[in-house]
Protein backbone atom coordinates (compact mmCIF):
# COMPACT_ATOMS: atom_id res chain seq x y z
CA UNK A 1 0.00 0.00 0.00
CA UNK A 2 1.38 3.39 -0.98
CA UNK A 3 2.45 6.13 1.42
CA UNK A 4 -0.12 8.35 -0.31
CA UNK A 5 -3.04 6.09 0.77
CA UNK A 6 -2.00 6.45 4.41
CA UNK A 7 -1.78 10.22 3.92
CA UNK A 8 -5.37 10.35 2.65
CA UNK A 9 -6.56 8.12 5.53
CA UNK A 10 -4.94 10.46 8.07
CA UNK A 11 -6.49 13.42 6.25
CA UNK A 12 -9.94 11.81 6.68
CA UNK A 13 -9.22 11.31 10.42
CA UNK A 14 -8.36 15.01 10.80
CA UNK A 15 -11.57 16.00 8.95
CA UNK A 16 -13.48 14.00 11.62
CA UNK A 17 -11.53 15.93 14.26
CA UNK A 18 -12.66 19.20 12.68
CA UNK A 19 -16.30 17.99 12.63
CA UNK A 20 -16.06 16.92 16.32
CA UNK A 21 -14.50 20.30 17.22
CA UNK A 22 -17.29 22.18 15.39
CA UNK A 23 -19.90 20.10 17.23
CA UNK A 24 -18.08 20.99 20.47
CA UNK A 25 -18.26 24.67 19.51
CA UNK A 26 -22.00 24.30 18.82
CA UNK A 27 -22.46 22.81 22.32
CA UNK A 28 -20.52 25.71 23.88
CA UNK A 29 -22.71 28.29 22.10
CA UNK A 30 -25.98 26.49 23.03
CA UNK A 31 -26.56 28.38 26.34
CA UNK A 32 -25.74 31.74 24.66
CA UNK A 33 -27.92 31.59 21.56
CA UNK A 34 -30.51 29.04 22.82
CA UNK A 35 -30.35 27.05 19.58
CA UNK A 36 -33.22 24.69 18.89
CA UNK A 37 -31.55 21.28 18.99
CA UNK A 38 -31.38 18.37 21.42
CA UNK A 39 -28.22 19.05 23.46
CA UNK A 40 -27.75 15.45 24.59
CA UNK A 41 -28.05 14.07 21.05
CA UNK A 42 -25.30 16.44 19.84
CA UNK A 43 -23.10 15.45 22.82
CA UNK A 44 -23.40 11.81 21.64
CA UNK A 45 -22.43 12.80 18.07
CA UNK A 46 -19.52 14.95 19.35
CA UNK A 47 -18.05 12.20 21.56
CA UNK A 48 -18.51 9.37 19.02
CA UNK A 49 -16.91 11.30 16.15
CA UNK A 50 -14.04 12.52 18.37
CA UNK A 51 -13.21 9.05 19.74
CA UNK A 52 -14.07 6.83 16.77
CA UNK A 53 -13.71 9.19 13.81
CA UNK A 54 -10.59 11.10 14.81
CA UNK A 55 -8.64 8.99 17.33
CA UNK A 56 -9.57 5.48 16.16
CA UNK A 57 -9.02 6.17 12.44
CA UNK A 58 -5.72 8.01 13.05
CA UNK A 59 -4.36 5.36 15.46
CA UNK A 60 -5.36 2.32 13.39
CA UNK A 61 -3.82 3.95 10.29
CA UNK A 62 -0.54 4.64 12.14
CA UNK A 63 -0.38 1.11 13.61
CA UNK A 64 -1.01 -0.42 10.19
CA UNK A 65 1.60 1.88 8.63
CA UNK A 66 4.25 0.84 11.17
CA UNK A 67 3.73 -2.85 11.90
CA UNK A 68 1.81 -4.55 9.08
CA UNK A 69 3.18 -6.31 6.01
CA UNK A 70 1.79 -3.91 3.37
CA UNK A 71 1.95 -6.31 0.40
CA UNK A 72 0.00 -9.05 2.18
CA UNK A 73 -2.79 -6.85 3.42
CA UNK A 74 -3.46 -3.80 1.28
CA UNK A 75 -6.73 -4.80 -0.42
CA UNK A 76 -8.33 -6.22 2.75
CA UNK A 77 -7.17 -3.22 4.78
CA UNK A 78 -8.77 -0.80 2.30
CA UNK A 79 -12.06 -2.71 2.55
CA UNK A 80 -11.93 -2.58 6.37
CA UNK A 81 -11.10 1.13 6.21
CA UNK A 82 -14.05 2.03 3.96
CA UNK A 83 -16.48 -0.16 5.94
CA UNK A 84 -15.36 1.78 9.04
CA UNK A 85 -16.08 5.08 7.23
CA UNK A 86 -19.61 3.91 6.34
CA UNK A 87 -20.38 3.21 10.02
CA UNK A 88 -18.89 6.57 11.10
CA UNK A 89 -20.86 8.60 8.56
CA UNK A 90 -23.94 6.64 9.65
CA UNK A 91 -23.33 7.69 13.29
CA UNK A 92 -22.71 11.29 12.22
CA UNK A 93 -26.06 11.57 10.41
CA UNK A 94 -28.12 9.72 13.06
CA UNK A 95 -26.84 10.69 16.54
CA UNK A 96 -27.53 14.47 16.31
CA UNK A 97 -31.17 13.82 15.32
CA UNK A 98 -32.18 10.78 17.34
CA UNK A 99 -29.56 10.15 20.07
CA UNK A 100 -29.41 6.48 21.05
CA UNK A 101 -32.13 5.00 18.84
CA UNK A 102 -32.48 2.24 16.27
CA UNK A 103 -30.28 3.55 13.43
CA UNK A 104 -27.50 5.07 15.56
CA UNK A 105 -27.33 1.82 17.57
CA UNK A 106 -27.12 -0.20 14.32
CA UNK A 107 -24.20 1.94 13.05
CA UNK A 108 -22.42 1.86 16.46
CA UNK A 109 -22.80 -1.94 16.60
CA UNK A 110 -21.49 -2.34 13.05
CA UNK A 111 -18.53 -0.12 13.98
CA UNK A 112 -17.64 -2.44 16.89
CA UNK A 113 -17.83 -5.50 14.61
CA UNK A 114 -15.59 -3.84 11.96
CA UNK A 115 -13.11 -2.85 14.71
CA UNK A 116 -12.84 -6.54 15.69
CA UNK A 117 -12.18 -7.39 12.04
CA UNK A 118 -9.38 -4.77 12.05
CA UNK A 119 -7.79 -6.34 15.17
CA UNK A 120 -7.92 -9.82 13.57
CA UNK A 121 -6.50 -8.45 10.31
CA UNK A 122 -3.68 -6.59 12.11
CA UNK A 123 -2.73 -9.70 14.09
CA UNK A 124 -2.69 -11.94 11.00
CA UNK A 125 -0.59 -9.57 8.88
CA UNK A 126 2.16 -8.36 11.23
CA UNK A 127 5.42 -7.93 9.36
CA UNK A 128 7.64 -10.85 10.56
CA UNK A 129 10.62 -8.50 11.08
CA UNK A 130 8.79 -6.88 14.02
CA UNK A 131 7.88 -10.08 15.85
CA UNK A 132 10.35 -9.30 18.70
CA UNK A 133 9.55 -5.58 18.75
CA UNK A 134 8.71 -4.16 22.19
CA UNK A 135 6.69 -1.45 20.42
CA UNK A 136 4.57 -4.20 18.82
CA UNK A 137 4.03 -5.79 22.25
CA UNK A 138 2.52 -2.48 23.45
CA UNK A 139 0.43 -2.12 20.25
CA UNK A 140 -1.00 -5.66 20.65
CA UNK A 141 -1.88 -5.00 24.30
CA UNK A 142 -3.52 -1.70 23.25
CA UNK A 143 -5.72 -3.53 20.72
CA UNK A 144 -6.72 -6.08 23.39
CA UNK A 145 -7.82 -3.18 25.63
CA UNK A 146 -9.83 -1.77 22.73
CA UNK A 147 -11.73 -5.07 22.49
CA UNK A 148 -12.15 -5.20 26.30
CA UNK A 149 -13.50 -1.61 26.32
CA UNK A 150 -16.27 -2.66 23.92
CA UNK A 151 -17.82 -4.82 26.68
CA UNK A 152 -19.17 -1.50 28.04
CA UNK A 153 -21.38 -0.68 24.99
CA UNK A 154 -22.50 -4.33 24.68
CA UNK A 155 -23.58 -4.26 28.35
CA UNK A 156 -25.51 -0.98 27.90
CA UNK A 157 -28.34 -2.61 25.96
CA UNK A 158 -28.90 -5.26 28.65
CA UNK A 159 -28.67 -2.64 31.43
CA UNK A 160 -31.16 -0.33 29.66
CA UNK A 161 -33.66 -3.18 29.25
CA UNK A 162 -33.37 -4.62 32.76
CA UNK A 163 -32.27 -1.80 35.13
CA UNK A 164 -32.84 1.40 33.15
CA UNK A 165 -30.64 4.41 32.37
CA UNK A 166 -30.92 5.70 35.95
CA UNK A 167 -29.10 2.73 37.52
CA UNK A 168 -25.46 3.09 38.62
CA UNK A 169 -24.58 0.21 36.27
CA UNK A 170 -25.51 2.34 33.26
CA UNK A 171 -22.93 5.00 34.20
CA UNK A 172 -20.38 2.35 35.21
CA UNK A 173 -20.67 0.67 31.77
CA UNK A 174 -19.97 4.04 30.07
CA UNK A 175 -17.02 4.73 32.41
CA UNK A 176 -15.68 1.20 31.80
CA UNK A 177 -15.74 1.87 28.06
CA UNK A 178 -14.12 5.31 28.35
CA UNK A 179 -11.44 4.17 30.80
CA UNK A 180 -10.20 1.26 28.71
CA UNK A 181 -10.45 3.38 25.55
CA UNK A 182 -8.21 6.21 26.69
CA UNK A 183 -6.01 4.59 29.36
CA UNK A 184 -5.74 1.21 27.67
CA UNK A 185 -6.20 1.43 23.91
CA UNK A 186 -5.22 5.01 23.04
CA UNK A 187 -2.36 5.88 25.40
CA UNK A 188 -0.78 2.41 25.19
CA UNK A 189 -0.96 2.49 21.37
CA UNK A 190 0.85 5.86 21.41
CA UNK A 191 3.50 4.37 23.75
CA UNK A 192 3.84 1.46 21.27
CA UNK A 193 4.40 3.91 18.39
CA UNK A 194 6.98 5.81 20.44
CA UNK A 195 8.92 2.62 21.27
CA UNK A 196 8.69 1.60 17.59
CA UNK A 197 10.37 4.91 16.61
CA UNK A 198 12.96 4.27 19.32
CA UNK A 199 13.72 0.79 17.95
CA UNK A 200 13.87 2.09 14.34
CA UNK A 201 16.67 4.40 15.48
CA UNK A 202 18.60 1.31 16.61
CA UNK A 203 18.28 2.16 20.30
CA UNK A 204 18.06 -0.86 22.60
CA UNK A 205 15.65 -1.09 25.52
CA UNK A 206 16.92 -3.57 28.16
CA UNK A 207 14.49 -6.50 28.36
CA UNK A 208 14.26 -6.51 32.18
CA UNK A 209 13.63 -2.76 32.35
CA UNK A 210 10.97 -3.00 29.64
CA UNK A 211 9.28 -5.90 31.50
CA UNK A 212 9.12 -3.74 34.67
CA UNK A 213 7.59 -0.89 32.68
CA UNK A 214 5.13 -3.08 30.75
CA UNK A 215 3.85 -5.02 33.77
CA UNK A 216 3.46 -1.96 36.01
CA UNK A 217 1.72 0.00 33.21
CA UNK A 218 -0.78 -2.80 32.62
CA UNK A 219 -1.42 -3.24 36.34
CA UNK A 220 -1.96 0.55 36.44
CA UNK A 221 -4.38 0.49 33.49
CA UNK A 222 -6.53 -2.26 35.07
CA UNK A 223 -6.54 -0.88 38.63
CA UNK A 224 -7.10 2.80 37.74
CA UNK A 225 -10.53 1.72 36.46
CA UNK A 226 -11.49 1.77 40.16
CA UNK A 227 -11.01 5.57 40.06
CA UNK A 228 -14.09 5.62 37.80
CA UNK A 229 -16.15 3.79 40.46
CA UNK A 230 -15.42 6.04 43.46
CA UNK A 231 -18.46 8.27 42.80
CA UNK A 232 -20.59 5.32 44.03
CA UNK A 233 -19.00 5.74 47.52
CA UNK A 234 -17.80 2.10 47.55
CA UNK A 235 -15.91 0.27 50.31
CA UNK A 236 -12.44 1.34 51.48
CA UNK A 237 -10.76 -1.35 49.34
CA UNK A 238 -11.89 0.29 46.09
CA UNK A 239 -9.92 3.39 47.13
CA UNK A 240 -6.89 1.20 47.92
CA UNK A 241 -7.06 -0.51 44.50
CA UNK A 242 -7.55 2.84 42.72
CA UNK A 243 -4.56 4.29 44.62
CA UNK A 244 -2.39 1.26 43.78
CA UNK A 245 -3.34 1.69 40.10
CA UNK A 246 -2.37 5.38 40.13
CA UNK A 247 0.96 4.60 41.85
CA UNK A 248 1.65 1.74 39.42
CA UNK A 249 1.07 4.04 36.42
CA UNK A 250 3.30 6.71 37.97
CA UNK A 251 6.05 4.11 38.44
CA UNK A 252 5.66 2.80 34.85
CA UNK A 253 6.11 6.24 33.29
CA UNK A 254 9.02 7.00 35.64
CA UNK A 255 10.73 3.78 34.41
CA UNK A 256 10.01 4.72 30.76
CA UNK A 257 11.39 8.22 31.27
CA UNK A 258 14.47 6.75 32.99
CA UNK A 259 15.10 4.58 29.90
CA UNK A 260 14.65 7.40 27.42
CA UNK A 261 15.85 10.69 28.87
CA UNK A 262 19.54 10.36 27.96
CA UNK A 263 18.82 9.48 24.34
CA UNK A 264 16.07 11.89 23.30
CA UNK A 265 18.54 13.75 21.03
CA UNK A 266 19.11 10.55 19.03
CA UNK A 267 15.49 10.55 17.81
CA UNK A 268 16.32 13.45 15.46
CA UNK A 269 13.03 15.25 16.13
CA UNK A 270 12.35 18.50 14.28
CA UNK A 271 11.68 21.65 16.35
CA UNK A 272 7.90 21.24 16.03
CA UNK A 273 8.09 17.50 16.84
CA UNK A 274 10.20 18.20 19.94
CA UNK A 275 7.68 20.84 21.04
CA UNK A 276 4.83 18.30 20.61
CA UNK A 277 6.83 15.63 22.47
CA UNK A 278 7.58 17.90 25.43
CA UNK A 279 3.93 19.01 25.62
CA UNK A 280 2.67 15.40 25.73
CA UNK A 281 5.24 14.59 28.42
CA UNK A 282 4.13 17.48 30.65
CA UNK A 283 0.43 16.63 30.16
CA UNK A 284 1.01 12.94 31.02
CA UNK A 285 2.59 13.94 34.33
CA UNK A 286 -0.31 16.32 35.08
CA UNK A 287 -2.75 13.46 34.36
CA UNK A 288 -0.80 11.08 36.63
CA UNK A 289 -0.78 13.61 39.49
CA UNK A 290 -4.56 14.13 39.08
CA UNK A 291 -5.06 10.34 39.21
CA UNK A 292 -3.04 10.12 42.44
CA UNK A 293 -5.13 12.92 43.97
CA UNK A 294 -8.51 11.48 42.95
CA UNK A 295 -7.68 8.17 44.67
CA UNK A 296 -8.11 10.10 47.96
CA UNK A 297 -11.75 10.19 49.17
CA UNK A 298 -11.87 14.01 49.51
CA UNK A 299 -10.72 14.62 45.91
CA UNK A 300 -12.75 11.65 44.59
CA UNK A 301 -15.92 13.32 45.93
CA UNK A 302 -14.84 16.63 44.46
CA UNK A 303 -14.31 15.09 40.99
CA UNK A 304 -17.68 13.32 41.18
CA UNK A 305 -19.67 16.37 42.30
CA UNK A 306 -18.33 19.02 39.91
CA UNK A 307 -18.90 18.09 36.27
CA UNK A 308 -16.48 20.75 34.95
CA UNK A 309 -13.57 18.96 36.69
CA UNK A 310 -14.47 15.70 34.92
CA UNK A 311 -14.88 17.45 31.54
CA UNK A 312 -11.56 19.27 32.08
CA UNK A 313 -9.82 15.95 32.85
CA UNK A 314 -11.32 14.19 29.80
CA UNK A 315 -10.33 17.08 27.51
CA UNK A 316 -6.82 17.12 29.04
CA UNK A 317 -6.54 13.45 28.01
CA UNK A 318 -8.22 13.57 24.57
CA UNK A 319 -7.42 17.05 23.26
CA UNK A 320 -4.08 17.13 25.06
CA UNK A 321 -2.17 13.86 25.46
CA UNK A 322 -3.87 11.77 22.76
CA UNK A 323 -4.47 14.38 20.02
CA UNK A 324 -1.08 16.09 20.40
CA UNK A 325 0.56 12.64 20.53
CA UNK A 326 -1.17 11.80 17.23
CA UNK A 327 0.02 15.10 15.72
CA UNK A 328 3.58 14.13 16.69
CA UNK A 329 3.49 10.75 14.91
CA UNK A 330 1.55 12.01 11.88
CA UNK A 331 4.25 14.63 11.35
CA UNK A 332 7.14 12.28 12.22
CA UNK A 333 6.10 9.70 9.60
CA UNK A 334 5.45 12.50 7.04
CA UNK A 335 1.79 11.50 6.74
CA UNK A 336 0.41 14.90 7.75
CA UNK A 337 2.42 18.06 8.28
CA UNK A 338 1.96 20.01 11.51
CA UNK A 339 3.22 23.59 11.27
CA UNK A 340 4.07 25.67 14.32
CA UNK A 341 1.53 28.31 13.28
CA UNK A 342 -1.54 26.04 13.00
CA UNK A 343 -0.53 24.03 16.09
CA UNK A 344 -0.12 27.26 18.11
CA UNK A 345 -3.75 28.24 17.44
CA UNK A 346 -4.93 24.74 18.39
CA UNK A 347 -2.82 24.64 21.55
CA UNK A 348 -3.86 28.14 22.61
CA UNK A 349 -7.52 27.12 22.29
CA UNK A 350 -6.87 23.91 24.25
CA UNK A 351 -4.90 25.66 27.02
CA UNK A 352 -7.27 28.60 27.55
CA UNK A 353 -10.47 26.51 27.45
CA UNK A 354 -8.93 24.01 29.91
CA UNK A 355 -8.00 26.88 32.25
CA UNK A 356 -11.56 28.25 32.11
CA UNK A 357 -13.23 24.82 32.56
CA UNK A 358 -11.03 23.96 35.58
CA UNK A 359 -11.63 27.48 36.94
CA UNK A 360 -15.41 26.92 36.75
CA UNK A 361 -15.04 23.59 38.57
CA UNK A 362 -12.87 25.17 41.27
CA UNK A 363 -15.29 28.12 41.56
CA UNK A 364 -18.21 25.74 42.16
CA UNK A 365 -16.17 23.83 44.77
CA UNK A 366 -14.84 26.91 46.61
CA UNK A 367 -18.00 28.97 46.03
CA UNK A 368 -16.23 31.77 44.17
CA UNK A 369 -18.23 34.16 42.05
CA UNK A 370 -17.88 33.46 38.33
CA UNK A 371 -17.19 36.60 36.29
CA UNK A 372 -19.79 37.91 33.86
CA UNK A 373 -19.53 36.82 30.26
CA UNK A 374 -17.58 33.61 31.02
CA UNK A 375 -19.88 31.55 28.73
CA UNK A 376 -19.24 33.91 25.80
CA UNK A 377 -15.48 33.93 26.48
CA UNK A 378 -15.41 30.10 26.68
CA UNK A 379 -17.26 29.83 23.33
CA UNK A 380 -14.91 32.37 21.74
CA UNK A 381 -11.81 30.53 23.00
CA UNK A 382 -13.27 27.19 21.83
CA UNK A 383 -13.36 28.65 18.30
CA UNK A 384 -9.52 28.57 18.28
CA UNK A 385 -9.50 24.74 18.31
CA UNK A 386 -11.41 24.16 15.02
CA UNK A 387 -9.55 27.18 13.58
CA UNK A 388 -6.19 25.47 14.28
CA UNK A 389 -7.43 22.15 12.84
CA UNK A 390 -8.85 23.87 9.73
CA UNK A 391 -5.47 25.58 9.18
CA UNK A 392 -3.75 22.17 9.41
CA UNK A 393 -6.12 20.77 6.78
CA UNK A 394 -5.53 23.72 4.44
CA UNK A 395 -1.75 23.19 4.78
CA UNK A 396 -2.21 19.48 3.96
CA UNK A 397 -4.50 19.62 0.96
CA UNK A 398 -5.23 16.21 -0.60
CA UNK A 399 -1.96 14.45 -1.56
CA UNK A 400 -1.13 14.34 -5.28
Automatic annotation (TrEMBL):
Transmembrane stretches, start-end: 12-33, 45-68, 80-97, 103-123, 143-160, 180-198, 210-231, 237-260, 280-300, 312-333, 345-365, 377-394
Gene3D superfamilies in UniProt: Cytochrome c oxidase-like, subunit I domain
UniProt keyword list: Membrane, Transmembrane, Transmembrane helix
Protein name: Cytochrome C and Quinol oxidase polypeptide I
